[in-house]
Amino acid sequence: MSWARAAAVSASSRAVVSATGNESLLTLLEGISGRTIRARIWRGLVDDQAAGRTLAEHEAIYAALSARDAPLSQAAALLHVSNTEQWLRQRIGSGAPERDASTRTPGRDAGRTVS
User: b vs e for 45-73, b when ≥16 Cβ sit within 10 Å of the residue's Cβ?
Assistant: First the structure.
């Protein structure tokens, strides 16, 4: 994921949170925004499937918001944040900044060692 794409994703998150009118949540998001952009770029570099999964999660959030289904919107957002947090905790806990073994591409990743 490029810096520009990560910034666009961050801006869309900010727009969704702003629409809630929850100033506390917006302040929290603003406070962690820089770190989450770096994490998104890192994830995009080491996990070839991240963009597709993230897009599907964002589409689920958007669909729930469009349907004005508050419980489903909350659940979709919680799932998205939880999946991202779980991925990050696994990488930090293992100390493994390397590409996920499950997303290695034969040929392109040939010769790389798997931790």
Answer: ebbbebeeebeebbebbeebbeeeeeeeb
Answer yes or no: are the C-beta atoms of 44 and 51 closer than 8 Å. yes
Spatial distance between the Cα atoms of 60 and 72, rounded to a whole number of angstroms: 9
How many other β-carbons are positioned within 10 Å of the β-carbon of residue 1?
18
State how far the Cα of 72 lies from the Cα of 27, in Å rounded to an integer.
23
Rounded CA separation 6/44 (Å): 9
3-state SS class at 113: coil
Residue 70 sits at φ, ψ, to 5 deg, of -60, -50
Distance of alpha carbon 35 from alpha carbon 21, whole angstroms: 23
- Identity at 94, one-letter amino acid code: S
Tens-digit pLDDT profile for residues 52-106: 898 899 899 989 999 999 999 999 989 988 998 898 888 887 665 555 444 444 4
pTM over 0.70, yes/no: no
